[in-house]
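dumping this here so i dont lose it
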């Protein structure tokens, strides 16, 4: 029957009882399936993990600079790994590293949420911060698109009528 219409007999669900078969053009079916897979692959978003390294004795300006970098990464939709690096005797003061990480988590709470609590990995204490599902920056941009900007009202300007020159010309004097 399939040969008569130049199609293929394809087993669709072999584990079903009885097995399900279909008469179709198998080459066309495979092409459509590859096309769907390709489209799905294009739509798939690669999430990049950015890393920011700090020290337990970080200065205020350095801290602010790194927090701004974390915020921009989160606004771009990237996950951020925040690491505090301990050297030598600093390993005795792990609480200072936890304080720095909790301070960072509080500073970027508007832009992202903490995925993993602070944990030690060798001489690093790390947390992962993921961007919020709804980004405040993207929300503002969408609001601007929805609400058209109010056009300023231009006052109507009418040309003034030309007044007669009241002063005499130079050749008339």
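and the seq i came up w/
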């Amino acid at each position: 029957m399939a040969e008569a219409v130049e199609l293929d007999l394809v087993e669709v669900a072999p584990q079903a009882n009885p097995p399900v078969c279909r008469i179709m053009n198998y080459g066309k079916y495979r092409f459509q399936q590859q096309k769907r897979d390709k489209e799905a692959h294009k739509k798939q978003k690669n999430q990049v993990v950015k890393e920011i390294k700090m020290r337990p004795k970080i200065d205020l300006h350095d801290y602010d600079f790194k927090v701004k970098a974390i915020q921009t990464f989160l606004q771009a939709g990237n996950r951020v790994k925040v690491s505090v690096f301990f050297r030598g005797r600093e390993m005795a003061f792990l609480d200072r590293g936890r304080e720095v990480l909790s301070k960072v988590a509080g500073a970027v709470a508007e832009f992202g949420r903490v995925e993993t609590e602070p944990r030690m990995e060798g001489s690093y204490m790390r947390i992962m911060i993921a961007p919020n599902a709804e980004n405040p920056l993207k929300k503002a941009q969408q609001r601007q698109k929805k609400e058209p900007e109010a056009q300023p009202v231009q006052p109507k300007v009418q040309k003034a009528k030309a007044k007669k020159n009241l002063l005499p010309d130079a050749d008339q004097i």
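The chain has a mean pLDDT of 83.
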